[in-house]
Amino acid sequence: MILDQLTLHDFGVYRGEQTFRLTPQGPGKPIILIGARNGGGKTTFLEGLQLAFFGRLSQGFRGGVAYDEYLRRTINRAASPKDGAAIEVKFRRVLDGREQAFRIRRTWSVQNAGVRESFEVFVDGAHDRVLTAQWAEYVEEMLPPRIAPLFFFDGEKIEQFADLGGSGEIVGTAVSALLGLDIVERLQTDLDVFERRKAATHASISEQQALKAVADAAEAAQARLDIEQTALASAKRHRDRQILLLERARTNFKTQGGDLFQARQEILAEDVELTGALGAVNRSLRAWAGELAPLMLVEDLLGEVAAQAERESQADTAKAVLDHLAKRDRQVMQKLKAARANGVMLHEIGAYLDDDRKKIAAQATTHRYLDMPRPARAQLETVIDQGLPAAHEVCQALIVDLDSLTARKDDVDRRAAAIPAPETIAPLVAAVEAETNALQQAEAQVELAQKTVEDAKRILAAARAAYKDTMERQVQSTLQAEDAQRMLEHSARVRETLARFKAEVIGHHVHRIEALVLEALSRLLRKEDLVTAVTIDPVTFAIRLSGGGWDALPFEQLSAGERQLFAIALLWALAQASGQTAPTVIDTPLGRLDSGHRQRLVDGYFPHAGHQVILLSTDEEIDARHYARLEPFISHSMTVEFDPAQRSSRVREGYDFVRAEEVA
Ligand SMILES: Nc1ncnc2c1ncn2[C@@H]1O[C@H](COP(=O)(O)OP(=O)(O)OP(=O)(O)O)[C@@H](O)[C@H]1O
Ligand SMILES: [Mg+2]
Fold it and tell me: How far is the CA of 239 from the centre of ligand 1 (A)?
């Protein structure tokens, strides 16, 4: 990473907009020298840089106050808090072989007693919303805030790293951040949490109690159903018996003439009707007997009378024609003789005529005793031809009717006779009624028992479903508990592996850091035999120095200057080990070092501390002599001048603290 420019606007001692050009001019000239006297604004510059990049993640604000309060205090006293302050940094970074130009801008102001801060990122001139929103993640990958002190530091304040605790801490932080071990640690913490959570997963006692309760409920429901089903069966048996009893009572009622008794009204009505019909037929028969009926008894005699009357009538007729016929026959014979008829023919005809007259004469001799007058004969013929056949027909029909009615009357009489007396039938009717009622009750009981059984079945089904549910849930939680157990075992193994991995990685890097620290120390320390070995505990990261007759050189044994040098050597080594390409910014780099050690830093450290080294120096530190030695490595320089009238600082090009002739 290359810092190109830092602009401070009403930030701390800097009034208005003050811009520092920071781009190193060409290779081999990594140093940008900024001179300022006490209170000029060197530390303010360093803070501005950190604040721009890390915001509230910056390590240790001045005054140990809360972030908002710190921001409020940094606004230049002459500026309006409402207008606030701003810091802008331009830098470049090569990512995936491509260089990108960044500009980050942080502004803040006091609004309604609160501090409002805003932050924006521009990449290659364009506002980048995504990066603005995700800056914390981005900066964590680019330059983790925790290791920023390896690169941006105040030379006077780094002594803290030169004791057992401080050095161990910075080495530990650096190692874990640089090697990505904080991810391993986070993973270990996560595993811890995970194991605690999983350990809590087990089938609880209340779950088992719940299962027992639902099992009991299902069993009780089954017992209830059994009882109700027995009751139903018994009710059905009772009902069937009642059907039988009713059947029996009905049969009894029937065999005892119950049906006839019930039909007695119709039977009596029929009896009355038949009696009436028979009376009518008898009356008809009597009427009939008073008319032609008696003549039917002498039907043959009537026939004979009619024949005798006929014969007598014929005899009268014969008598009347016989004389006339004799006269006419004589005339016929005379005529025939006159006509000279053949003798045979005469004989034959004469014989026939005589014979015929004899026959008629015989009729005329009939015995007469009736002498029936003509009207009487006509009346007789009417009776014989019409009256008697009609009487026969009427007689026949009446007799058929009489027979049929008599038969029916006999039947009705028999049935009427068989109708039981009401007092006989009453108990039978009562029995049928009683059994009918009893059956109805039995049916109702069966129905009720049926309903109760259905209810019991429903309750049982629900209880069984609840049991099944609870059971399944319990099985599920048992499985989960087993899963949890398995996971716990795996987790333990993962933790073990992680711990081994971490130890091995740390061990490897710790040796590298040991070598780098020793090398840096040997470049910076004047007493070359003071420290001959550096060992770092891979667990505590405690640094042990040995040399100068000490196996474990106590840090207190080091002088203040030596401690400062040791701290610089440590930071330098760690910065090298990190492989980061961040610029090195050193505030008050020479501090309280003596001239010899200053010389060593100037010669051995600053030109090699990195590809961009920003030195914030007082006039006492980088003086003409040091300047001369550093000059080949200096890209350019600036001076911050405090104006007592304005009570603020301004930046100017050039290093004011040495004059050209001094350098020469
Ligand atoms: N809000 C502010 N407005 C104006 N001046 C301020 C503000 N805050 C701090 N200062 C002044 O800024 C100066 C501190 O500057 P800074 O610490 O950067 O100086 P320095 O160059 O690091 O000095 P030293 O060499 O002593 O470390 C002080 O004089 C302080 O009064
Ligand atoms: Mg300072």
Answer: 112
How far apart are the CA of 36 and the centre of ligand 1, in A? 11
Question: What is the distance in A from the centroid of ligand 1 to the CA of 74?
Answer: 10
Assess if residue 473 is contained within a domain: no
What is the three-class DSSP state of 265?
helix
Residue 622 covered by a domain? no
Ligand 1 centre and the CA of 465: distance in Å? 79
List pLDDT tens digits, range 343-393: 898 999 999 999 999 998 888 888 888 888 889 888 888 999 888 888 888
| Confidence band for 395, pLDDT divided at 50, 70 and 90 | confident
The residue type found at 440 is Q
CA distance 459 to 106: 72
- Mean pLDDT computed over 8-36: 95
Q: Give the tens place of pLDDT for each residue, 90-145.
A: 999 988 889 999 999 999 999 988 999 999 999 999 999 999 999 999 998 888 88
d(CA 6, CA 22): 7
The answer to whether position 308 is within a domain reads: yes
Whether 510 is covered by a domain: the verdict is no
Provide the residue range defining the domain that includes 319.
Answer: 267-397
- Over residues 138-181, the pLDDT tens digits come to 998 888 888 888 889 888 778 777 776 777 788 888 777 767 77
Top mutation candidate among 44, 592, 639 for ligand 1, by most atoms within 8 Å of CB: 44
Name the domain count of the chain.
Answer: 1
Enumerate residues 6+ apart whose C-beta is below 8 A from 621.
588, 589, 590, 591, 598
| DSSP label of 163 | S
Whether ligand 1 lies within 6 angstroms of the CB of 639 is answered as: no
Ligand 1 within 6 A of 646 CB?
no
What is the separation, in whole angstroms, between the first and last Cα of the chain?
34
What tokens does 138 get?
A: 């981005």
In the chain, % helix, strand, coil (3-state, to 5) comes to 65, 15, 20
State if residue 617 touches ligand 1 by the CB under 6 angstroms criterion. Answer: no
The pLDDT confidence band at residue 205, using thresholds 50, 70 and 90, is low
DSSP 419: P
**Distances 645 to 38, 237, 656 between C-alpha atoms, Å:** 17, 122, 19
Q: Assess contact for 615 and 153: CB atoms under 8 A.
A: no
Beta-bridged to residue 127, according to DSSP, are 122
Q: Does the structure show a pLDDT above 60 at 664?
A: no
Give residues with Cβ within 8 angstroms of 304, minimum separation 6.
none
Contact 71, 115 (CB under 8 A): yes
Q: What is the mean pLDDT of residues 555-577?
A: 84
- Give the tokens for residue 199: 């350990």
**Number of Cβ within a 10 Å radius of residue 505:** 17
